């Protein structure tokens, strides 16, 4: 059952962008994709969700995006119970999901086009975003003319075009090679910091999760749940060399420890 | 192309001309041998008419007697109307089936039965129901043209990109927007392939329909000419159909590269330029 009790959780919705209390999701009545997730996401926080396949990361994101409803528990975005997709929450997937028959510019303009007639100002805004993600010379290219990394850059621009202040990124660079992924991660940090958006970022990689985040939600499968929440205190802006430091690796060990504890 | 080449005749041009020349030489040699074989009586001229005679028959069919026009027109009308009706029917039924699980379930057994039945074999029945004439031919061509677009459109919808649809939903798109902006264009390459298959079988379907059921059309002309052993005219009629088939094929080809421009580099560049102009002027 899905409770619409906002005050009953006892948490203060004022300071939180996303508020989950005992959020569970069952598929087909038997598969427990997520069980009892309780968490808070504060404005402008960067949250990494890390965990093995099948621990409910995508399920949690899709519930926050309003694509599917929780089976029980309460889940609020900006104080409203989730129900259907909303303008201020945007999502990006592992696959670029660009439309092959639209130029980069037209793909980026899609979110606008779905709600109103596109104006010259919209176009200029989209072109700025395209430049921001490093595709300045490719605004009129078609997706098939772009590399995988460039396609994800275009999807990122499209996500920003929505104007959403909550960004849900489901393994956005997971299909790219190591080098491209590292570069895009850094650019993502720069962009998110510049815009001051709240971000939930799904990954399989512990180092990546810690490097990017203010807080890491460590998730474990069968049933999927949040097994621990680790705060990441490192200063921003962060440099890739942070990954070589002792405190960083101690934190990696701490996250590993949560998985190991769960395995016993 | 190199800079040193003679103006207007680069190395590549030279190669193309050489190829064209070779092809022409082989063709001329072939026709000459054929001509000689019939002139010398080695081949029976009654059954294998001389190339020069065939060329003369073109003149007589198209200009002197001019009997081919009416038949050609009838066949083309049959092909085009049957193609249009069959294709539209196939695509719209597929859209209904693609959108409704229930429709799909109830349609499925009939589709399987119809698919397993050779379409042309339904011809004589159509003849019995609709009589000699245009309606029966139209029905046969329609039937021949129905399946490929239907199956391909349905396949296109059922194999729609789930992530794409999820993305559209997350952007708050309506059902109609998801259909028109994502699913239909996404399925378009498959739909177009179905349409091309339909066109490819339409001419054949029309001719068979004319063989069995009609008193006019190219199929009838061909039948009649061959029956009275007017072979040079029959060859001319056959070659006319070859040319017709070729044009229909080319038309479908350009239609495809126009609609599915993102599968063709040239068309893609053209559209990119057009879009750039459009957005710059906005
Ligand atoms: N639509 C669905 N119907 C049935 N079961 C589902 C559905 N979606 C997800 N599941 C199940 O729920 C569980 C969690 O899935 P989810 O996709 O959230 O995992 P994940 O953490 O995102 O995994 P991955 O890292 O592989 O993406 C899995 O066991 C999955 O099989
Ligand atoms: Mg997932």
From TrEMBL, chain A:
GO terms for molecular function: ATP binding; ATP hydrolysis activity. Keywords: ATP-binding, Nucleotide-binding, Transport. It comes from the Bacteria. Residues 18-246 form the ABC transporter domain. SUPFAM superfamilies: P-loop containing nucleoside triphosphate hydrolases. CDD domains: ABC_NrtD_SsuB_transporters. The keyword Nucleotide-binding applies. SMART domains: AAA. Belongs to the ABC transporter superfamily. This is ABC transporter ATP-binding protein. It comes from Histidinibacterium lentulum.
TrEMBL record, chain B:
Its main location: membrane. One of its GO terms (cellular component) is plasma membrane. It is a multi-pass membrane protein. The keyword Transport applies. Keywords: Cell membrane, Membrane, Transmembrane, Transmembrane helix, Transport. It is found in: Cell membrane. Residues 72-250 form the ABC transmembrane type-1 domain. InterPro entries: MetI-like, MetI-like_sf. CDD domains: TM_PBP2. The chain crosses the membrane at residues 20-41, 79-99, 111-132, 138-160, 190-213, 225-249. One of its GO terms (biological process) is transmembrane transport. Belongs to the binding-protein-dependent transport system permease family. This is ABC transporter permease. The lineage of its organism: Bacteria, Pseudomonadati, Pseudomonadota, Alphaproteobacteria, Rhodobacterales.
């Amino acid at each position: 059952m899905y409770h619409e009790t906002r005050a009953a959780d006892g948490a203060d919705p004022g300071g939180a962008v996303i508020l989950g209390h005992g959020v569970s999701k069952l598929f087909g009545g038997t598969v427990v994709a997520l069980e009892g997730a309780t968490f808070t996401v504060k404005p402008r926080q960067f949250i990494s969700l890390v965990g093995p396949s099948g621990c409910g990361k995508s399920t949690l994101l899709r519930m926050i995006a309003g694509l599917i409803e929780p089976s029980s528990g309460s889940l609020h975005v900006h104080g409203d119970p989730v129900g259907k997709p909303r303008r201020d929450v945007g999502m990006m997937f592992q696959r670029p999901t660009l439309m092959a028959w639209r130029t980069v510019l037209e793909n980026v303009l899609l979110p606008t086009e779905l709600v109103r007639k596109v104006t010259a100002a919209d176009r200029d805004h989209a072109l700025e975003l395209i430049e921001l993600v490093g595709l300045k010379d490719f605004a009129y290219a078609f997706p098939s003319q772009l590399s995988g990394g460039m396609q994800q850059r275009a999807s990122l621009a499209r996500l920003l075009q929505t104007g959403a202040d909550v960004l849900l990124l489901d393994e956005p660079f997971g299909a790219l090679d190591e080098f491209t992924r590292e570069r895009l991660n850094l650019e993502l940090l720069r962009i998110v910091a510049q815009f001051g958006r709240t971000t939930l970022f799904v990954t399989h990689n512990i180092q990546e999760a810690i490097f990017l985040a203010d807080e890491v939600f460590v998730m474990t499968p069968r049933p999927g749940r949040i097994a621990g929440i680790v705060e990441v205190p490192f200063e921003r802006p962060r440099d890739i060399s942070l990954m070589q430091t002792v405190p960083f690796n101690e934190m990696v060990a701490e996250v590993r420890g949560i998985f190991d504890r769960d395995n016993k | 192309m190199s800079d040193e080449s003679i103006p207007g005749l680069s190395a590549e041009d030279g190669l193309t001309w050489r190829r064209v020349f070779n092809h022409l030489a082989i063709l001329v040699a072939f026709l000459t041998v054929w001509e000689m074989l019939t002139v010398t009586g080695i081949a029976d001229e009654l059954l294998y008419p001389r190339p020069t005679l065939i060329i003369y028959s073109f003149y007589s069919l198209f200009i002197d007697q001019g009997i081919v026009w009416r038949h050609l027109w009838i066949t083309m009308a049959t092909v085009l109307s049957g193609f249009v009706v069959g294709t539209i029917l196939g695509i719209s039924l597929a859209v209904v089936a693609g959108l409704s699980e229930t429709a799909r379930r109830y349609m499925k057994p009939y589709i399987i039965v119809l698919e397993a039945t050779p379409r042309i074999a339904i011809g004589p029945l159509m003849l019995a129901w609709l009589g000699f004439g245009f309606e029966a031919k139209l029905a046969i061509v329609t039937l021949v043209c129905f399946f490929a677009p239907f199956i391909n459109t349905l396949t296109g919808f059922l194999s729609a990109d789930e992530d794409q649809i999820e993305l559209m939903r997350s952007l708050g798109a309506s059902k109609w927007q998801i259909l028109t902006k994502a699913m239909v264009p996404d399925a378009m390459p498959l739909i177009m392939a179905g349409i091309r298959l339909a066109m490819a079988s339409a001419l054949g379907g029309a001719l068979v329909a004319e063989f069995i059921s009609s008193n006019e059309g190219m199929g009838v002309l061909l039948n009649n000419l061959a029956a009275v052993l007017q072979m040079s005219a029959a060859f001319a009629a056959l070659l006319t159909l070859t040319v017709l088939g070729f044009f229909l094929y080319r038309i479908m080809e350009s239609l495809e590269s126009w609609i599915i421009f993102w599968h063709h580099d040239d068309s893609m560049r053209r559209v990119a330029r057009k879009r750039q102009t459009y957005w710059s002027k906005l």
